[in-house]
Amino acid sequence: MRANYREQLDTISAELIEMSNLVGTAMALATQSLLDADISLAEQVINNDEAVDHLNQELEDKCFNVTALQQPVATDLRTTMSGLRISASLERMGDLAAHVAKQARLRYPNQSVPAELRATFARLGSLCQEVVAKVAAVIETRDVTLAADIRRYDDEIDRLHRELFTVVLSPTWSHGVEAAIDVTLLSRYYERFADHGVTISRRVIHIVTGEPYGEIDIDLL
Fold this sequence. Notes:
This protein is mostly helical. Helix content is 83%, strand content 0%. It has one domain (2-220): Phosphate transport system protein phou homolog 2, domain 2 (Methane Monooxygenase Hydroxylase, Chain G, domain 1, Up-down Bundle), CATH 1.20.58. It contains six helices and no strands. The protein is globular and about 60 Å long. The protein starts with a helix and ends in a 12-residue tail after the last helix. 38% of the residues are buried.
């Protein structure tokens, strides 16, 4: 019975890692579809979001079942309860990747991103890949020092997000209001994706240390 209990907890962690990999792939493909105006890739990302939603539902059911039937305590209880929150964050990250893909689809066959901003959005996509790779690693290893790396990537994404606001509000912006709105929305999707990565890392710190989630300061790691 106890072995089965441990297997259930291990399955929760394994499926969270699987979700991390799925949303990482989704954001990579969404970014490519955005930069290349690739409608087939955009549709792939949008359709595949259902798999992330399905895993989220499965994880919710597993976490509730383990809590109700096994009555976990201490670290195990934090694992199941935080698993619910982590799964929800990953599901939202998948939605954000789908939003990027939908924007690419909306403007197809035209580009959503002006040529001079392509490198910035390519960098945002790359940084989000770094974030989600660290998210998977911190879930798997429970090495809380990895949270500092996630925070560092998030800070750079925040900086790029602010820079893009400056660009679209500049008097030299020549692409019109619609393009300014597109760039602002897209930048926000990447920024929120990374924010969820930080949230997940704090949840794992809570699991490992027992420190209340609201009191965790990654900058002190």
